[in-house]
Design a protein that fits this description.
Blueprint lengths: L1 H20 L7 H4 L2 E3 L13 E6 L1 E3 L7 E5 L5 E8 L2 E7 L2 H5 L8 E5 L6 H15 L2 E6 L9 H14 L1 H17 L9 E6 L2 H11 L11 E7 L8 H5 L5 E8 L4 H10 L17 E5 L1 H4 L18 H11 L6 H9 L11
Parallel strand pairs: 1-6, 2-8, 7-8, 7-9, 9-10, 10-11, 11-12
Antiparallel strand pairs: 2-5, 3-4, 5-6
Helix pairs in contact: 1-5, 1-9, 5-7, 6-7, 11-12
Length: 352
């Protein structure tokens, strides 16, 4: 029995350590030197297709190389427009979401992206850029502190979960700004479809917001086209109760994979089955489309994009599915099954 328990917690520890080690390359001096925080009064002068908007609740230190802290500032949100030119990221500060979005290219659909554990500011930039490039969308990254490089892996697991919960109130502020922009017909959002995407521990923010924040104003009308709960690192038990409270989105999608290695580790650490693992039909939310990726992704956890250092590649069917989802198009349960079934024979099964 002792050996069994040791093996279980070793596996869980390895899973958490993987998340921590993944942040290390992005925290080098060389990597941070690619990011130039501009003075508050400076506005972007050139146009570039390689650009992002970040909404962050980190502490900001303008005079430091690592200007985006690894701790939360729950007193205020910061807005940034990021533009890559000449191999460097120019990071412009903006007073509001709308003013940051005014610099983004028009005519693209929008994805609001919340990541999971292990992401410093620079790592979130890499992921947001990949999403923008692969799916031809404008990305708004909700950037919160989900790792501290001075902590051990076990402490970081608790740190990331705690910070995700603490960020729910500020995420609600972002949602209200999006709703107001939609209602007012702001030029930067007019005609664009809007998707909110939550990966892994990013779903803690959504769950906490729905359960413990005042969302009645959001639920007046569905202003989000697609809401995507991806590989969710939140308890499976009782999830239908809070998911069914989401009336501000036209469609809700829940993606799961019973062999997800990262979520197996979280399951063992918390002794609770995670929503992104497997969901029995009788426990499902009535307003959600559930999509099972197990046959296509093996042990993978981040199976929504192609990552340069991961041999696993999405099948053409998966690319087609995520392209539709991220561009705000509705995918019915039957369509999801039909679309993704075509990719099973050619699916990659490279394990993490």
């Amino acid at each position: 029995m002792k050996r069994f328990l040791t093996a279980i917690f070793l596996m869980a520890g390895i899973t958490v350590a993987q998340a921590q080690n993944g942040a290390a390359p992005y925290n080098s001096n060389e990597h941070w030197q690619e990011f130039l925080l501009q003075p508050e009064t400076l506005k972007p002068q050139t146009q570039s297709d390689t650009c992002l908007v970040f909404v962050s609740n980190r502490y900001i230190h303008p005079d430091s190389l690592r200007f985006a802290d690894e701790h939360l500032d729950t007193t205020s949100l910061k807005y940034f427009f990021l533009q890559k030119t000449g191999g460097k990221w120019n990071v412009y500060q903006a007073p509001s979401l709308g003013e940051a979005m005014e610099h983004m290219p028009r005519g693209k659909d929008i994805v609001v992206y919340a990541e999971g554990m292990g992401k410093i500011f620079t790592a979130n930039v890499v992921r947001a850029k990949l999403m923008a490039a692969q799916y031809k969308v404008n990305v708004i990254m909700f950037d919160y502190a989900s790792i501290n490089n001075s902590y051990k892996p076990s402490k970081n697991f608790k740190f990331a979960r705690h910070n995700a919960r603490l960020s729910a109130g500020q995420y609600l502020q972002l949602m209200r700004q999006l709703q107001q922009a939609k209602t007012a017909g702001a030029p930067w959002i007019e005609g664009a479809r809007l998707t909110t995407f939550y990966h892994s521990m990013g779903n803690i923010i959504l769950e906490e917001m729905v359960q413990h924040q005042h969302i009645s104003g959001l639920n007046n009308t569905p202003f989000i086209d697609n809401l995507v709960i991806n590989a969710a690192c939140v308890p499976q038990k009782g999830h239908a109760e809070w998911v069914e409270k989401i009336n501000f989105a036209k469609q809700v999608y829940i993606h799961y994979n019973r062999s997800d290695l990262q979520l197996k580790g979280a399951h063992l650490l918390m002794l609770k089955k995670q929503l992104g693992e497997k969901v029995k039909k009788r426990h499902r939310a009535s307003n959600a489309v559930y999509v099972n990726f197990h046959n296509m992704v093996g042990w993978q956890h981040s199976y929504f994009m192609n990552f340069p250092k991961n041999e696993f590649r999405l099948t053409p069917a998966m690319v087609a599915y995520f392209s539709r989802i991220f561009n705000g198009q509705e995918v019915s349960p039957n369509e999801a099954i039909s679309l993704l079934d075509t990719g099973k024979e050619t699916a990659g099964h490279t394990h993490l």
